Amino acid sequence: MFKKSPKPALVKLTLSLLFLLPALFLFSQKTSIFTRATEYSSPIIVDHTNLDNYFSLLKDNPQAIALTSSQSLLFRHASVGGNINDGLNCLANNYDRRPYICDRDLDPSEVIYDPAFDRSNWDFEFHLPPPEQNPGWWVKVTEYVNRVDTAPHYDFTAFKFGYVDAFYDSVIDQEFFNPQSAAYPNISQIEALDTRHPDQTQIFWTMGLARTIGTPQSTAFNQQMRAYALQNNKVLLDMADIESHSPTGEACFYQGEPALCADYTTEINGGHLNARGKLRLAKAVWVTMALASGWDPGLHQPTALPTDTQPSPTVVNPSPTSLPTQQPTLLPTQAPTAVPTLAPTLPPIGDNSSPVISTSSLSTAYLNTPYTKMVVARDDDPNDTLTMSFQSLPLGLSQGVCQLTNTTRTTLACQVTGTPQQSGYFVFFATVTDSYGASVTRPISITVQ
């Protein structure tokens, strides 16, 4: 007797099954470690207390990295979000030749990159097209909602507020978590978005900080965001908590409020991230995405607010660098942000109208070349008196003459003039006050080439 040769079709089927075994194994592993949900039975919070432990486990789990990478993300942001985007690219080493910005001033032990950290499914977008990528916080909410409603399907969506949204005259801490208010877009619009898109998961963020922001507004907003995530079982990347703690865990404050540690920036007053800051937030994004996608690292999730929400009155400055002890001048920055119009410091007094600064940016200046441009403000009250002052002008520029015009309304135009001595991207501040004491401050951007 002899064995009958298997039929060609059976041979093909057998070989096909053999080829499918690795894929079937991977699928079985995927379902065992990943159970993605759009609603969670407990909050998922990534902050300075668990980031390092989580990332240490994640980086040694190539399967979890690959499955996290397969999830799609839409993230809306301004300039610091661009820093985080750079950090993600550096972590994946998405370059033919690795740029200096990835590892500048890092100790060799801090440098990490691996092409396995593929973030090609994660889309980072400005709130608005440049040069208006950093509008008022209320515009950011509206633009985010509109974008998610019209975008293709993403597994996760998110947006974040920046430190410019928490200046001392901001109302974000009073309005965003006040669904009864109709004055500004608020959390009710975000919750309605969840209802319209039940197959997508929103990742919440606390507000980014700067060296001199911490303000009462940023602290109050971030406390409310943490409480909201805890009470509603949301996914929260606690950027503020991470930024306000050094890599070794020391808390950083400015005038008693949690603020960006000097370890994460080269700026004296601002909030744009250096290589260490970019890498740390990139790690936080990866850990948050992995946890939200169902990865279980086996570590305890926090159930209480971070300790920095109730800061000690003692200002702690992280080693090796320290926060400035003198009142700093706001605010030169180097990352390309456009800037929002801030709400007036004072409400109208009687029939008085508060002034409005019309200028949001100045045209490009050139190094060692004479330059004069005007910053313009207006007040709807005729025959009013306006005064304007500038803070933190780039080196070589100063305030020149001002011209006041009274017609059907009051207009004030003041020169920014001089010969720039330093190239880069800068933000300075204009403050306009009328004769009744109503005042407004607006950051204004200028590029010196």
Explain what this protein looks like in three dimensions.
This protein is of the alpha/beta class. It folds into two domains: 40-309, Rossmann fold, CATH 3.40.50; 356-448, Sandwich (Immunoglobulin-like). Helix content is 28%, strand content 19%. The protein is built from ten helices and 15 strands. A six-stranded parallel beta sheet has the order 1-6-5-4-2-3, sandwiched between helices. The protein is globular and about 70 Å long. Residues 1-33 and 302-349 have low confidence and may be disordered.
Rough shape?
globular
Helix-strand sequence: HEHHEHEHEHHEHEHEEHEEEEEEE
| Helical segment count | 10
CATH superfamily of the largest domain: SGNH hydrolase
The CATH topology of the largest domain corresponds to Rossmann fold
Strand order of the largest sheet: 1-6-5-4-2-3
Largest sheet: 6 strands, parallel
The CA-CA distance between the termini, in Å, is 89 Å
Strand coverage percent: 15-25%
Q: If you average the pLDDT, what whole number results?
A: 83
**In angstroms, what is the radius of gyration?**
26 Å
Structural class: alpha/beta
CATH architecture of the largest domain: 3-Layer(aba) Sandwich
How many domains would you count in the coordinates? 2
